[in-house]
Amino acid sequence: MRFSTAIASTAALAAGANAMFNGSMVYETKVLTEYTTFCPFATEVVHGDMTYTVTEATTLTITNCPCTVTYPVSTSVVSECSTW
After folding, report:
1. What confidence tens digit (pLDDT) does each residue in 62-72 have?
2. Coil, strand or helix at 8
3. What is the pLDDT of residue 15?
4. What phi, psi does 5 have (nearest 5°)?
5. What is the pLDDT at residue 73?
6. What is residue 6's three-state secondary structure?
């Protein structure tokens, strides 16, 4: 399974994810075969025991997997009023 942070909200809806509830925030955990994220500036990305150094804005793809990623899932309440 590939994962891109650009589609995190879509991936959060995917079947087979494990959801955890922590206070008012819901988290999902996925085991991935590849992890892609966009770094808008120089930074270091630490995943597991590996540190990836990014020297400029780039799309970083981690292929040294499996990668276990836990991230918050955005939720919202939608109400529809049919009359005013």
Report:
1. 998 888 888 89
2. helix
3. 36
4. -65, -20
5. 87
6. helix
